[in-house]
Amino acid sequence: MLICKYTRKENAVFVPHLDTLRAVTMAIRRIGARAEYSAGFNPHMKIFFGQPIPIGTESDCEYFCVYAKESPSDFMRRLNESLPFGLCITAAAEIQKDPNVANLMYYADYTVTMRREESNLLAAEKFAAGRQCEISYIVKGERVHKDVKELICSVQAENPRTLRLRLRCGNRNLRADRLMRFWADSFGWGSYDVVKTNTYDENGVNLDKILFGSDK
User: Fold this and answer.
1) DSSP state of 123
2) How far apart are CA 85 and CA 206, in angstroms?
């Protein structure tokens, strides 16, 4: 069994989660990897991904586990040659059992880069420091209002163009794109890019250390 870490960049950020899963699965088939399949009338490759990431958000730290009997380094090299542009395996290791990456994910770090300098990025820090942090966003055509105070772990305005966020993910999560869209509308910010940079478990341990034994 293999655990793999991959990045999602460029045009791949606009590919939905299920289509990303299909793309990786087809690439594994193309390279002829010895993957295991489920039993039954319609067998599926035994491959399990982490939690979905919103469309438009880049990521340096996505994971999947595949039941395959392959050399990790050889699998990574051959799969990268077959994956669509924008997807890239950056680490692979052999493990004994499925770590259930989706359940491990508890916190995530994001770097937000503004495309122009903004004079009031500190407004995000003040917002997060408030007693309540109510935001609003649209879901299936309806506006939702939600207090996300407990879902914001930290906010840092590093300079006039950079925000560092640590947000909850998992069963109780706050999407960085929704938070940023609310802030941009509220504070008059221009366009920006969001990159997910690190993921942690409930105890704040980086998933790379849990899955690979060291930072990758």
Assistant:
1) H
2) 27
Q: What's the average model confidence in pLDDT over 50-60? A: 93
Would you call 8 exposed, middle or buried from its count of C-beta atoms within 10 A (0-12, 13-18, 19+)? buried
pLDDT over 80 at 216, yes or no: no
Mean pLDDT over the full length of the chain: 94
Residue 15 confidence (pLDDT) above 60: yes
The token pair at 198 is 């690190």
pLDDT-derived band at 187, boundaries 50, 70, 90: very high
- SS3 at position 23: helix
Dihedral sign for Cα atoms in the order 28, 44, 34, 36: positive
List the beta strands (DSSP E) in the chain: 2-8, 47-49, 58-66, 87-94, 107-114, 134-139, 142-147, 152-159, 162-168, 192-200
What are the pLDDT digits (tens) for 113-137?
Answer: 999 999 999 999 999 999 999 999 9
DSSP 42-98: S--B-EEE-S---TT-EEEEEEEEE-B-S-HHHHHHHHHHHSPTTEEEEEEEE-SS-
Tell me how far CA of residue 122 lies from CA of 36, 80, 99, 163, 167, in angstroms: 51, 40, 38, 9, 17
User: Which residues, at least 6 apart from 142, have a Cβ–Cβ distance to it below 8 Å?
Assistant: none
- Count CB-CB contacts under 10 A for residue 82: 16
What is the pLDDT at residue 171?
Answer: 83
